[in-house]
């Protein structure tokens, strides 16, 4: 499949239209007709992206290692879910979403970067500004109670979804916005979107979201130049340190005064600590290969908590779903991206991308999101140091 792209405007429109359906605002899922329309648009977008990707591979005769690794992660998760009789369809949908965004970013992410970043920024702006409007207009939450399953509840749910889930959009949005400002020198949109993200987080007061945003802001403003300490690999080491210090040795008890007195989140953390202990027991039962994806109801029954539908920690959730084998694939993915980021970590782009990963690493300590736009950060980090193409008369048929 090939588009005859004659201008930056055409390229912008193509990337924008292919990307927007891949967003999946939680609010729209509760209506049958919107859910179906979005699913149709997503399938169309995915098919076009795959066609472009195949054409790219045919011409360049090369597949990026990072893409292969991410594909193997989700292929393995689907297989292990099939073996254990889990929710195969839901796992396939998640894999579909992730891989669609990943290959979109591989096809366009390193070609005419300004146009690509501008199109992605507009997509994030639309979703985040709508979400902020819903928070202001519906302070008690946007969703309505589902008449049969009670799955959708009004409390703490807005356009993007449940308030703890906003980071899966906020973090990649900040990365794209600041890369756009660095690439073009235009900073107004970046500052406005950053303000909207901060206001959104403050209104709903999600401890995990606020903590990750606070960490990213402080590090980016004051410490981003000290790359020997504040760097991509050390951010990922937080997962191990957190596992040992908090989950194993309960060091968080030393900060009770802050967690309870300032953030008022001690009760939430206490619940997570109980969940982590029970999840560790389940992990030991399938340590090597994992349990695959299971329904929220089964997961909640396994740990004896109605809200315990997943581990609320990225490391534990990876181990539960795919065991040590899947964790190894994630480590390979992290290392592949890190090897490239290390080459340009002293550049403005390198510091932006690394700080974005810090936000993901911080929030993944108490949540587990590996959605398409978060996973796409690996592709951006991996490709950024490679030469960027440019749209001109000699390369109209690049795509």
Oligomer: single chain
How far is the N terminus from the C terminus?
8 Å
Structural class: mainly alpha
Task: Give the tally of structural domains.
Answer: 1
**What share of the residues does DSSP label as strand, in percent?**
under 5%
Please give the largest β-sheet.
none
Low-confidence stretches: 391-399
Total helical elements: 15
Report the average pLDDT across residues. 89
Helices and strands, in N-to-C order? HHHHHHHHHHHHHHH
Q: What percentage of residues falls in helices of 4 or more residues?
A: 55-70%
**Rg for CA atoms:** 21 Å
Number of strand elements: 0
- Based on Cα principal axes, name the global outline: globular
Describe this structure in a few short sentences.
The protein has helices at residues 8-19, 32-60, 65-83, 88-108, 113-137, 167-184, 188-204, 207-223, 232-248, 256-261, 266-285, 296-303, 314-343, 348-363, 372-383. With 399 residues, the protein is mostly helical.
